[in-house]
Amino acid sequence: MREAEMALNMFTPLFSDSVQLRVTPWFISSGLCAQSEKRIVCRAKGTWMRMIWLVLCLVPMAACAVATKNPEPGRFGTLRVATEAGFPPFNSRNEQGELVGLDIDLFRAAANKAGYEVEFLVEPEFSELFRMVDDGRADAIASTVSITADRKRRYLFTRPYFETGISVIVREDDDRIKVPRDIASRTVGAPAGTTSATIAQELAADEVRDFATSNAAINALLAGEIDAYLIDEVEARELVVGRAVRMLAEPAAVEGYGFLFAKSRREAKSRVDAAMTNFLPLHVEQSP
User: Which of 107, 145, 226, 281 is the one with CA 20 to 30 A from 120?
Assistant: First the structure.
């Protein structure tokens, strides 16, 4: 699906700076979500979520107003932000070569409101994004980074902006793996440097093979070189279309995405985190 078709301004400007946050209808067209009136019901990583729009313009304007004037973008400098730019609808390039997606739009909008300009640095290898922060080439990452206990010991995270999880893909004719724990003692694939690989290890997979691309992993799965592939459900739903593979109904794990900052940028993290509340008019809760 073209990025031009996915981009849609679903939120109207809510503040005087008229920053618009684009949220793509991909979540609805993909079957992950269904929309009715002010409620969007989504299935993310095998978990039903109710995303209720708290549209601030429905509240009296006086109650919504920001008491203090927002700082001008750039007042506190420029944030160098690493991203893959290869994972729509979160981060990718459109036909004009522009960076688009939820990661890009939300980070830029929040950072600008917090008083920062943003310079995005594209690195297609996910694991390299962390090295960019470690060696000072980047201040932050906006690229569907899962918030984990281990990462929180090394970096700073904003509040989560999307709840997701890890799906298990197996061959269509393979009935040996019915639930995630069945990957124990089997050869499993996962994207290099991701929580998918960590979860595979935690589930006692015999061997976890790193893959640079999901297409290569699916080809290896079909060839019998691996028994399963663990990946984010958003991408998993795309990967199974038209191929002799299927997703397990139960996710291997549920997690949240957040923006990652270097520990040396604590003040910037705090400012951006606070500004994010202005652009997240969605309340996420487990449905019964």
Answer: 281
What CATH number matches the domain at 3-162+255-286, 3.20.20.80, 1.20.20.10, 1.10.600.10, 3.40.190.10?
A: 3.40.190.10
Q: Which of 125, 17, 122 is nearest to 66 (CA)?
A: 17
Q: Which fold has domain 166-254?
A: D-Maltodextrin-Binding Protein; domain 2 (3.40.190)
Whole-angstrom distance, CA of residue 195 vs CA of residue 175: 25
Tell me the mean pLDDT in the region 224-231: 97
Q: Which of 198, 239, 200 is nearest to 222 (CA)?
A: 239
In the predicted model, what is the mean pLDDT of residues 90-107? Answer: 94
Q: What's the full length of the chain, in residues?
A: 288
Give CA–CA dist 230/251, Å, rounded. 9
Closest CA to 235 of 284, 280, 174, 190: 190
Calculate the alpha carbon distances from 178 to 172, 230, 237, 247 in Å. 11, 14, 17, 10
CB 108 within 8 A of CB 49: no
Q: What is the pLDDT of residue 28?
A: 39
The pLDDT tens digits for 244-278 are 999 999 999 999 999 999 999 999 999 999 999 88
Q: Do 227 and 187 meet the contact criterion of CB atoms below 8 Å apart?
A: yes
Q: What is the pLDDT of residues 162-195, one digit of tens each?
A: 888 899 999 999 999 999 999 999 999 999 889 9
